[in-house]
Amino acid sequence: MDIGKRFDKVAKEYDTQDKLERSKQFVKNLLENIPINREFKVMDIGAGTGTVDILLSPYVKEIVAFDLSEGMLDVFREKVKKEGIKNIRILKKDLFSEGFEEKDFDLVITSMTFHHLDNPAQALNQIKEYLKAGGYVAVIDLYKEDGTFHSDNTDVKHFGFDEREVESWLKKTGMEKIFYGIIHSIKKSGRDYPVFLIIAIKNR
Protein backbone atom coordinates (compact mmCIF):
# COMPACT_ATOMS: atom_id res chain seq x y z
CA MET A 1 0.00 0.00 0.00
CA ASP A 2 1.37 3.42 -0.92
CA ILE A 3 1.69 6.25 1.56
CA GLY A 4 -1.24 8.18 0.09
CA LYS A 5 -3.62 5.29 0.71
CA ARG A 6 -2.27 4.83 4.24
CA PHE A 7 -3.14 8.44 5.04
CA ASP A 8 -6.54 8.03 3.35
CA LYS A 9 -7.42 5.59 6.14
CA VAL A 10 -6.75 8.07 8.96
CA ALA A 11 -7.84 11.30 7.22
CA LYS A 12 -11.13 11.81 9.03
CA GLU A 13 -9.52 11.37 12.46
CA TYR A 14 -6.24 13.08 11.61
CA ASP A 15 -6.91 16.54 13.03
CA THR A 16 -6.21 16.79 16.75
CA GLN A 17 -5.69 19.65 19.16
CA ASP A 18 -1.96 18.90 19.25
CA LYS A 19 -1.67 19.13 15.46
CA LEU A 20 -3.57 22.43 15.51
CA GLU A 21 -1.18 23.79 18.15
CA ARG A 22 1.83 22.64 16.11
CA SER A 23 0.40 24.36 13.04
CA LYS A 24 -0.18 27.57 15.00
CA GLN A 25 3.44 27.55 16.18
CA PHE A 26 4.63 26.95 12.62
CA VAL A 27 2.68 29.91 11.23
CA LYS A 28 3.62 32.14 14.19
CA ASN A 29 7.31 31.47 13.59
CA LEU A 30 6.96 31.99 9.83
CA LEU A 31 5.40 35.40 10.40
CA GLU A 32 8.10 36.33 12.92
CA ASN A 33 11.07 35.31 10.77
CA ILE A 34 10.01 35.99 7.16
CA PRO A 35 8.71 39.32 5.76
CA ILE A 36 5.47 37.69 4.57
CA ASN A 37 3.01 39.99 2.83
CA ARG A 38 -0.15 39.88 0.71
CA GLU A 39 1.92 39.50 -2.48
CA PHE A 40 3.46 36.20 -1.37
CA LYS A 41 2.84 33.11 -3.48
CA VAL A 42 3.31 29.99 -1.33
CA MET A 43 3.77 26.30 -2.14
CA ASP A 44 2.96 23.66 0.49
CA ILE A 45 4.33 20.14 -0.06
CA GLY A 46 2.54 17.49 1.99
CA ALA A 47 -0.33 19.78 2.96
CA GLY A 48 -2.45 17.05 4.53
CA THR A 49 -5.74 18.38 5.88
CA GLY A 50 -4.59 21.95 5.32
CA THR A 51 -4.43 23.26 8.87
CA VAL A 52 -1.22 25.24 8.25
CA ASP A 53 -2.46 26.68 4.96
CA ILE A 54 -5.79 27.81 6.39
CA LEU A 55 -3.97 29.65 9.19
CA LEU A 56 -1.50 31.21 6.74
CA SER A 57 -3.98 32.13 4.00
CA PRO A 58 -5.04 35.56 5.36
CA TYR A 59 -1.44 36.81 5.18
CA VAL A 60 -0.53 35.84 1.60
CA LYS A 61 -1.77 36.20 -1.98
CA GLU A 62 -2.05 32.52 -2.86
CA ILE A 63 -1.18 29.04 -1.62
CA VAL A 64 -0.74 26.05 -3.92
CA ALA A 65 -1.07 22.93 -1.76
CA PHE A 66 0.06 19.41 -2.71
CA ASP A 67 -0.52 16.04 -1.09
CA LEU A 68 -0.59 12.36 -2.08
CA SER A 69 -3.69 11.41 -0.08
CA GLU A 70 -7.09 12.04 -1.63
CA GLY A 71 -8.68 11.39 1.75
CA MET A 72 -6.62 14.09 3.47
CA LEU A 73 -7.30 16.52 0.64
CA ASP A 74 -11.05 15.83 0.84
CA VAL A 75 -10.96 16.98 4.47
CA PHE A 76 -8.92 20.02 3.39
CA ARG A 77 -11.43 20.90 0.64
CA GLU A 78 -14.32 20.68 3.11
CA LYS A 79 -12.58 23.16 5.43
CA VAL A 80 -11.82 25.59 2.59
CA LYS A 81 -15.42 25.45 1.39
CA LYS A 82 -16.84 25.87 4.91
CA GLU A 83 -14.62 28.88 5.64
CA GLY A 84 -15.06 30.46 2.20
CA ILE A 85 -11.34 30.64 1.50
CA LYS A 86 -10.59 31.68 -2.09
CA ASN A 87 -6.78 31.84 -2.27
CA ILE A 88 -5.84 28.15 -1.84
CA ARG A 89 -5.44 25.73 -4.75
CA ILE A 90 -5.41 22.05 -3.76
CA LEU A 91 -3.70 19.45 -5.99
CA LYS A 92 -3.14 15.70 -5.63
CA LYS A 93 0.36 15.35 -7.02
CA ASP A 94 3.80 13.99 -6.14
CA LEU A 95 5.80 17.14 -6.74
CA PHE A 96 9.17 15.39 -6.47
CA SER A 97 8.46 12.81 -9.17
CA GLU A 98 5.93 14.64 -11.37
CA GLY A 99 7.13 18.23 -11.13
CA PHE A 100 5.03 21.37 -11.51
CA GLU A 101 4.97 23.94 -14.28
CA GLU A 102 4.81 27.05 -12.09
CA LYS A 103 7.93 28.64 -10.60
CA ASP A 104 8.97 31.81 -8.76
CA PHE A 105 7.33 31.09 -5.42
CA ASP A 106 8.13 33.42 -2.53
CA LEU A 107 7.92 30.63 0.04
CA VAL A 108 7.85 26.82 0.04
CA ILE A 109 6.72 25.12 3.24
CA THR A 110 6.60 21.49 4.25
CA SER A 111 5.46 20.04 7.54
CA MET A 112 6.29 16.57 8.87
CA THR A 113 7.03 15.18 5.39
CA PHE A 114 10.83 14.97 5.23
CA HIS A 115 11.07 11.87 7.42
CA HIS A 116 9.06 10.06 4.72
CA LEU A 117 11.49 11.01 1.92
CA ASP A 118 14.36 8.83 0.72
CA ASN A 119 16.68 11.78 0.07
CA PRO A 120 15.80 15.04 1.88
CA ALA A 121 18.90 16.82 0.51
CA GLN A 122 17.82 16.07 -3.05
CA ALA A 123 14.27 17.19 -2.20
CA LEU A 124 15.58 20.54 -0.97
CA ASN A 125 17.51 20.97 -4.18
CA GLN A 126 14.30 20.40 -6.15
CA ILE A 127 12.41 22.81 -3.91
CA LYS A 128 15.03 25.48 -4.58
CA GLU A 129 14.10 25.41 -8.29
CA TYR A 130 10.57 26.57 -7.45
CA LEU A 131 11.76 29.59 -5.47
CA LYS A 132 12.45 33.04 -6.84
CA ALA A 133 15.74 34.67 -5.88
CA GLY A 134 15.26 35.88 -2.33
CA GLY A 135 12.57 33.27 -1.71
CA TYR A 136 12.34 31.15 1.43
CA VAL A 137 11.97 27.49 2.33
CA ALA A 138 10.62 26.42 5.73
CA VAL A 139 10.71 22.82 6.97
CA ILE A 140 9.31 21.45 10.19
CA ASP A 141 9.91 17.86 11.20
CA LEU A 142 10.81 15.60 14.08
CA TYR A 143 14.08 16.11 15.89
CA LYS A 144 16.21 12.95 16.03
CA GLU A 145 14.28 10.17 17.80
CA ASP A 146 14.73 6.45 18.47
CA GLY A 147 12.09 5.11 16.10
CA THR A 148 9.30 4.93 18.68
CA PHE A 149 7.31 7.95 17.47
CA HIS A 150 5.38 6.02 14.82
CA SER A 151 3.53 2.86 15.79
CA ASP A 152 4.13 1.63 12.22
CA ASN A 153 7.42 2.61 10.56
CA THR A 154 6.51 1.15 7.14
CA ASP A 155 6.75 4.50 5.32
CA VAL A 156 9.27 6.12 7.66
CA LYS A 157 12.67 6.65 6.04
CA HIS A 158 14.34 8.61 8.87
CA PHE A 159 13.83 8.75 12.63
CA GLY A 160 13.96 12.53 12.71
CA PHE A 161 16.97 14.77 12.08
CA ASP A 162 19.44 16.79 14.09
CA GLU A 163 20.50 20.35 13.28
CA ARG A 164 23.80 19.36 11.65
CA GLU A 165 22.05 17.03 9.21
CA VAL A 166 19.63 19.72 8.10
CA GLU A 167 22.42 22.29 7.76
CA SER A 168 24.36 19.83 5.60
CA TRP A 169 21.41 19.61 3.19
CA LEU A 170 21.25 23.39 2.95
CA LYS A 171 24.98 23.58 2.31
CA LYS A 172 24.55 21.26 -0.68
CA THR A 173 21.83 23.48 -2.13
CA GLY A 174 23.64 26.76 -1.54
CA MET A 175 20.74 28.18 0.49
CA GLU A 176 21.45 30.13 3.67
CA LYS A 177 19.93 29.27 7.05
CA ILE A 178 18.22 32.22 8.72
CA PHE A 179 16.45 30.41 11.57
CA TYR A 180 16.58 27.12 13.42
CA GLY A 181 14.73 26.22 16.60
CA ILE A 182 12.59 23.70 18.46
CA ILE A 183 9.09 25.16 18.13
CA HIS A 184 6.86 22.40 19.49
CA SER A 185 6.90 19.10 21.34
CA ILE A 186 4.53 16.22 20.60
CA LYS A 187 3.43 14.26 23.65
CA LYS A 188 2.93 10.60 22.83
CA SER A 189 2.85 7.50 25.06
CA GLY A 190 4.15 9.52 27.98
CA ARG A 191 7.11 10.91 26.03
CA ASP A 192 7.96 14.23 24.43
CA TYR A 193 9.12 14.31 20.79
CA PRO A 194 10.57 17.71 19.84
CA VAL A 195 9.71 19.29 16.50
CA PHE A 196 12.17 21.68 14.83
CA LEU A 197 11.71 24.44 12.28
CA ILE A 198 14.43 25.51 9.88
CA ILE A 199 14.08 28.46 7.50
CA ALA A 200 16.52 29.23 4.69
CA ILE A 201 16.75 31.84 1.95
CA LYS A 202 17.68 31.41 -1.71
CA ASN A 203 20.19 34.18 -2.27
CA ARG A 204 20.70 33.56 -6.00
Descriptive tags:
204 residues; alpha/beta; seven-stranded mixed beta sheet; 7 helices
Plain-language structure description:
Helices cover 34% and strands 29% of the residues. The protein has 7 helices and 7 strands; from the N terminus they run ααβαβαβαβαβαββ. It has helices at 3-10, 17-33, 51-56, 70-83, 95-98, 120-128, 163-173, and strands spanning 41-45, 62-67, 88-92, 105-111, 131-142, 176-188, 191-201. Helix 6 crosses helix 7. The mean pLDDT is 89. This is Class I SAM-dependent methyltransferase. Keywords: Methyltransferase, Transferase. It comes from Persephonella atlantica.
List the helices and strands and how they pair.
Layout: H1 3-10, H2 17-33, E1 41-45, H3 51-56, E2 62-67, H4 70-83, E3 88-92, H5 95-98, E4 105-111, H6 120-128, E5 131-142, H7 163-173, E6 176-188, E7 191-201
Parallel strand pairs: 1-2, 1-4, 2-3, 4-5
Antiparallel strand pairs: 5-7, 6-7
GO molecular function: methyltransferase activity
InterPro entries: Methyltransf_11, SAM-dependent_MTases_sf
Organism: Persephonella atlantica
